[in-house]
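Thiamine pyrimidine synthase: structure, please.
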Amino acid sequence: MMKSTFTATVLALALSTSVEAADKVKFQLDWLPGGDKAPIYVCIERGFCEKAGLDVTIEPGRGSSEALTKLATGSSDIGISGIGALMAARANEGIEVTAVMSVFNKGPHAFFTLKGNKIDDFGDIDGKSVATSPFTSSNVYLPLVLQDNGISIDNLKLTKSDPGALGPMLVTGQVDAIIAWLTDLSRYERQAAAGGRELMIMPWSEAGLEMYATSLVASNRFLKERPDVARRFVGAFRKSVEYARENPADAAQAVADAVPELDAADAEASLSDALVLIFNEVTHAEGLGTLDPDRLAATWQRVAAAQGIEVEALDPESIVDRNFIEEN
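Here you go.
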């Protein structure tokens, strides 16, 4: 009896020491929880973060700009943000945040339309009525991708509406097309099918807007003061991305386990939509999470042109640190 009690006490102390030894990390989302954010939930719920000696908590976000601000001010340590937003913030404000890994190596921006709307290729969008959300970063790149394809934005009948209204507006024929992210493809497909229609998509990456998008970014202070913690986190996050690809249903369940108000089936659909932005021909050529110098430079060229910033205002290499991904 005494031996059993002693053993239990030793185990309890060991567990307590293990928990206390875990390094705390605040992870910053760029938007609301969902299947497209599955890797961080997999990392926590499926033990990848714990195995790396990390105690990770998630902070909600309301856009890349807010996420970057929270990282720069030290409210969070590492998180996700559009790399274009980071580039612009560094060029304009000198923000102390650095990209350490690519997540979406293709932009998520696209036109969604319906079969029968007489929009069969990108050029057919000319002169059509289009709805978009007021806050989406797609609006920044819209004039650029239109210009690349010989279309003036003045030719579009552009309406800005609440994100939740975009699908119904398209299905009911109030507009010919909407601007949305490919991470929401399944949701819009369901809405179209419910209305007896077939959804068609035109990704802007196929119309010339080739660039990195969502990336893993970190506070410079975090990278400088706790490099080993950052390195372990990047390794755990990368394993979580790979796990999500190989086990999408369980990865979606990890999201639902952490955020009970989210449905696992919906999370899996969103994850499936997001995976094509992570694993594709770019990944095959460059590797998972890498930031190729040429593609990075091309991304900055697009960001600078879209936001009216002089190209010379930023060396795109200054906003990345590849050491953390290359050592995993």
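Notes: The chain has two domains: 22-106+211-326, 109-207.
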